[in-house]
Design goal:
By secondary structure, the protein is α/β, with parallel strands linked by helices. The chain has a single domain, classed as TIM Barrel (Alpha-Beta Barrel). 48% of the residues lie in helices and 14% in strands. It contains 10 helices and 8 strands. It has an 8-stranded parallel β-sheet, covered by helices on one side. Helix 7 links the parallel strand 6 and strand 7. Helix 3 (53-67) packs parallel to helix 4, helix 4 runs parallel beside helix 5 (105-115) and helix 8 (205-219) packs parallel to helix 9. The radius of gyration is 18 Å and the shape is globular. The two termini are 23 Å apart.
Amino acid sequence: MIIVGEKLNSSIPRTLAALQAWDTETLVSLIEFQQLEGAQYLDLNTAMCEQREQELLIQLVQLVQEHSSCGIMLDSTSVQVLSAAAAHVKGRPLIFNSLTLSDRFEPVCQLAREYGAGVVALPIDAAMPHELKARCDAVDTLIDRLRGNGIPDDNIYLDALVETLATDTQSARCTLDTIRYTREHYPQVHCICGVSNISFGLPKRSLINSAFLTMAMYCGLDSAILDPTSISVQDTLAAAAAVCGQDEYCMEYITYIRETKDN
């Protein structure tokens, strides 16, 4: 499982405040703690800083490179911002987040080719497809176009489009079936999602997140944007890998339990 730490996103109030004040103590703590808890990539998003988005994203890239060995996921709706920040990524795996069939497709593909980077791709055209067939059709079209633009399958991170259960009780099933479809038809393509979106607006969110993450891993999810510092997420990742048959003789799970203080 490729873990992308979500804590350096300006949509999080504490992170936004730290970015706006350029509170390096808080930001470095978020960087180091996420890596310590298993993040292989860090998602960097400064969009809520508005006019300072590009300036602060570049500074954040530099701070991450000074204080971790994690790969970098650049998260912006602005191609200009993505391009400017990418120029400052040195010697790290890089993923651009994101493109759709109708938005930023060609320029983000060009950036991905230039840097040999991954790209988070959302199967959305004019509107979000809510029915499974429409979503799978969009997956087919999207991957075909990405291939045609020189993006190899193992650099594609197909976003399975997680929508909250609070407004659509079938949303998790549609996402899980999208993951299963992608894994069966495009085995080298990565399946990714923002796990916590599933529980937005609901109480005891960690319970929903844990159930969804386990099922998604069984269906073929191999990368996720989540909070690696959360104990419930750590527990779920360890247990789900064992249940899904991804942990031979459950040795990683046993080691995790032995090393967990509150076992």
